[in-house]
Amino acid sequence: TSPRSDARPIVIHAQMARDDQLDRMVKLGATPSFFSLHTYYWGDRHRDIFMGPKRAARMSPAASAIERDLRFSIHTDTPVVPMEPLRLMWSAVNRTSTSGAVLGKAQGISPKQALRAVTIDSAWQLFLSKDRGSIEVGKIADFAVLSDNPLDRPDTMDDIQVLQTWLGAKLMYDRSALP
Questions:
Q1: Does residue 1 carry a pLDDT above 60?
Q2: What is the H or E stretch that residue 64 is in?
Q3: How far apart are CA 11 and CA 75, in angstroms?
C-alpha cells in the first residue's frame, strides 16, 4: 500500500529541536509533541549537567513552533512523570523548574496556547479532531470540571482542583462525593 497522502508524522518529545529542525518539520508536514514537564522535573539537571544553560533554555521550544505556525501538542510521558495536565500546561507557560528557576522564558507560551496543545491540537495530531479535542455538539463528551479557569491563573494553574471528570457523558469522578 502507498503511504497516506495526508500523513502527519509526530516527532515525540522534540525536546531539543533547533529552529532549522522546526523549519524542516514545517516543510515535511511533521508535527512535534513536546515533553514540557521535562523543564519542571529535570530542568535543573539539564541546565547544570547535561545541556548547559543555553541549550536548556530551548527545551521544548513551543514558542519557536508557534512563530512558524507549526501545530504541536504537549505531553507528560506518563509513567515517567505523573499524569498532571494542569501542571503540564503550567510548565509550558512558566517554564519553571523544581528549584524555582525559570528556564528559557522566551519559549513560554500563553495559557490558551497550552490548553490548545493538550486538547484540540492533540486530537488533530492523531486525526481525532472530528469527534474529540473540543466541547462541541456531536463530539465525545470527555471533559473535566475545574475549580477555576486556568486561562485566568497562568502562574498557579497547577494548583487548580479537578471537581469532576466526565467520560462519554457519564460522571466518573466527583470531588464533592469524597469523604
A1: no
A2: helix 62-67
A3: 12
Nearest CA-CA partner of 149 in 137, 140, 159, 136: 159
Question: Is the CB of residue 60 less than 8 Å from the CB of residue 41?
Answer: no
108-120 confidence digits (pLDDT tens): 999 999 999 999 9
Nine cell digits for residue 34: 513536546
Q: pTM of this prediction?
A: 0.93
Between CA 30 and CA 110 the distance in angstroms is: 23
DSSP-derived secondary structure for 105-119? GGG---HHHHHHHHT
- pLDDT tens, 140-157? 988 999 999 999 999 999
> Which uninterrupted H or E stretch holds 55?
helix 53-56
CA–CA gap between residue 25 and residue 20 (Å, rounded): 9
Q: How far apart are CA 89 and CA 76, in angstroms?
A: 10
Contact 111, 150 (CB under 8 A): yes
